[in-house]
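Request: Mind sharing a record?
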Amino acid sequence: MKTKNILFAAVLSATALATQGQSSLTEIWATEATIPVPESVFYSASDKMLYVAQIDGKAGEKDGKGAIGKVGLDGKIVNLNWVTGLHAPKGMGKLGSKFYVADVTDIVEIDFKTGKILKKYPVEGSKFLNDLTIDSKGNIYVSDSDLHKVHLLKDGVVSTYYETLTRPNGLLAVGSDLLILDSGALIRLDANKKPTTIVDGLEKSTDGIEQVKPGEYIVSCWAGAVYYVKEGSKELILDTRPQTSNTADIGYDLVKKIVYVPTFFKNSVVAYQLK
């Protein structure tokens, strides 16, 4: 019996090891460190371009210094001033010919072809709009970190969609669900706004989220941690905290499985191959 128990324990141990460390990130390139405080990256498949939200100042300050820049998929900077005159832009999303960005207290609508600001939708009472996502019906959701809310822009009207959160940041619309990163937890809201915790215990500064496949996600935390997340489980696949390099709101190429990480105070974007 002892021999059998030892063998059984060994098999279990080997199986556990085989299922751990299945995902990894390998650096491909890094841009020059000339991007003024990159907070968010949006990967655009239609024109094979990265759009980078640049705070270029303080994250919650209305100073007019913010911009959206373009970076090529080879890591070469194309144009850091594609859109100017913003304050502290963060999360971004595209809907048809329009591009949207969360900018402190406004949702800004931009012409995707020209980079011209078309309209601003003030979010009344907001203090720190953060991430932004758009669902298949064209509804635009934006997190309001300081007020613990998620707002909705629908048919040109802004309303509060959900509240009583801790400090919401990253958002991702998936079908009829809305995924919310909330201070170390990943929460799913269904169509009836019923919350379910997918996973918790992540680094508290949860920031960006991208879907790798149904039920599996890459989650970044501003402090410098990136996780591969599944229902009820998490795997730390990148830790740049020892180098004090931030991993803010990520972008993702679903086809090539490349994760684009804005490094905030390091002033660059780094591309990683997901395996």
User: Anything to note?
Assistant: Confidence is low (pLDDT under 50) at residues 1-20.
